[in-house]
Each structure stands twice: as structure tokens, then as C-alpha cells.
Amino acid sequence: xxxxxxxxxxxxxxxxxxxxxxxxxxxxxxxxxxxxxxxxxxxxxxxxxxxxxxxxxxxxxxxxxxxxxxxxxxxxxxxxxxxxxxxxxxxxx
Length: 93
Known about the structure:
With 93 residues, the protein is α/β, with parallel strands linked by helices. It has a single domain, classed as 3-Layer(aba) Sandwich (Rossmann fold). 42% of the residues lie in helices and 12% in strands. Strands 2-1-3 form a 3-stranded parallel beta sheet.
């Protein structure tokens, strides 16, 4: 995504530190068209601390870079479901 578009958007993310270093926001921050303070963690919207999108013409962007612990949690749940449904293949190493 072009830095100019990111800079125009209201940006939400799962992890600000990652969004500004490896996510879509890094280029807009590097060229000075936006600052990290304009990025809101999605948890603030979920908890009601931030209103989220405020108008029909507002451009919003979710910069989901992922958090390793969340990935592991989802993977663990998927393995449990696969074992329960009989779709898992267990091998000895």
C-alpha cells in the first residue's frame, strides 16, 4: 500500500511496534507523512476506548502484522480440533 494512502487513513493494528517496523505503516512513518501516534491498537476499539470508524467517508486500514503468541494459540486450537475430529496424523520423531 502506498505511503500516501496509509497516511490518509485511520490506521488500526494488532501491534504498533510491529506496524511501524514491518507493517504497511513503516513507509509512511519513514517519509514523515504520518507518526506512530496516529496508529490505534485494535484492542482499544474492542474495549470501547476508541470509537473506530466515525463516518461513512472515513478511510480505515487494519495493519495486521500478527503477534507470535496469538499465532501459537490459534495453531494449538487447530491441532486440538484435528485430533478430536480424527484428521490429525501423529508421528513419532
